[in-house]
Amino acid sequence: MLGKLNHVAIACSDLDKTAKFYRDLGVKVSETVPLPEHGVYTVFVNFGNTKIELLKPYGDKSPIEGFLKKNKDGGIHHVCIEVPKIEEAMKKVKEMGVRTLTETTKIGAHGKPVVFLHPKDCGGVLVELEQE
Amino acid sequence: MLGKLNHVAIACSDLDKTAKFYRDLGVKVSETVPLPEHGVYTVFVNFGNTKIELLKPYGDKSPIEGFLKKNKDGGIHHVCIEVPKIEEAMKKVKEMGVRTLTETTKIGAHGKPVVFLHPKDCGGVLVELEQE
User: Fold this and answer.
1) Residues of chain A with C-beta less than 8 angstroms from the C-beta of B75
2) Which of A11, A127, B44, B76 supports an S-S bond with A117, CB 3.0-4.6 Å?
3) How many CB atoms lie within 10 A of CB A99?
């Protein structure tokens, strides 16, 4: 049902500084990509086996604004897990009593359908499912 | 300098429930392993490319006790990144002005030398470096 761990997302108070931290340690770090439709700027830190996705707010209604108010230094925002068939995965999690944050999938940062699961139903962790 | 992302550690308020969540979704989940010398019980959730390590406190002086007081539902505690040479990595991070939580390495949950970096110097994220 679940596939690989696609990425760990970190909300940053200082995106450039955190990107520099990983770059200085020799990790492959992408340029900053603005994603206005998602309300974030993103930087990908590629470890080969998986990625860290660094995020900073874009515009006034960023989905990570509230998180950064609570976590002023930044912090780990969510984990993203790949699924072969996202509609089947949504059906399965609902049967398990796990709530999704939206009734339908949205198109995520990688151009693929995604859905977020309620942290209260996933051990306190915001989990994103992404179509492989 | 940095290698693969070895694992994402999640501190759990209900370890069995969170382990069941991943098991029910078809992920390979280990038995619960007590690590008295680290003050935690661990469960490994293996995604193939990387792992989630579920933690719950063991004994009175668990290092995740404070985290769970602040995050009552549980949450993502740290990320662990492999390094080919941990002593060189410690020297490098110190040159970068990044503090380590201990002056020397300790033997971690996998029997290998590890050191933790100060979250304030790593974008708000507790980062564990582990010898490959």
Assistant:
1) 119, 124-125
2) A127
3) 13
Kindly report the CATH number assigned to the domain that includes residue A85.
Answer: 3.10.180.10
| Type of residue found at A72 | K
Contacts of A70 (CB under 8 A, 6+ apart): none
Q: Give which of B72, B68, B118 is closest to B96, Cα–Cα.
A: B118
In chain A, % of residues over pLDDT 70: 100
Mutate to test the interface with B, among A25, A82, A85, A96 (most CBs of B within 10 A): A25
pLDDT at A1 > cutoff 90: no
Rg (CA), chain A: 15
- Max CA-CA distance within chain A? 45
Total number of domains in chain B? 1
CA distance A130 to B13: 26
Token pair 């308020």 is at which residue?
Answer: B13
Interface check B107 vs A, CB under 8 A: no
pLDDT-derived band at A20, boundaries 50, 70, 90: very high
Nearest beta carbon to residue B76 from set A14, A76, A121: A76
Domain limits at B117? 5-131
Alpha carbons B64 and B77: distance in angstroms, whole number: 8
DSSP state string for A60-124: SS-TTHHHHHH-TTEEEEEEEEEES-HHHHHHHHHHTTPPBSSSS-EE-TTSSEEEEEPGGGTTT
Position B88 scores a pLDDT of 96
Q: Which residues contact B104 (CB under 8 A, 6 or more apart)?
A: B115
Residue B88, both tokens:
């060189």
